[in-house]
Amino acid sequence: MRKAEGDLHGLDRWLSLYDTQQFGKCIRCKNKININRLLLMPASTRCIHCAKL
């Protein structure tokens, strides 16, 4: 249940950023998150590089 709530929160965040300049940017390095990563994991807040750290 906690995972589902976390996923829902991530999707809400994604939707709230959709028409802003922050949409699709990594919260750590501010680089663009690869579109394939966003399509696979829309709640992603970090690029693949920062997610590995």
UniProtKB/TrEMBL annotation:
Organism, scientific name: Marivirga aurantiaca
High-level lineage: Bacteria, Pseudomonadati, Bacteroidota, Cytophagia, Cytophagales
GO molecular function: zinc ion binding
Keywords: Metal-binding, Zinc, Zinc-finger
Pfam family of the protein (one): zf-dskA_traR
Name listed for the protein in its UniProt record: TraR/DksA C4-type zinc finger protein
Residues in dksA C4-type zinc fingers: 26-50
InterPro entries according to UniProt: Znf_DskA_TraR
Domain Zinc finger DksA/TraR C4-type: 22-51
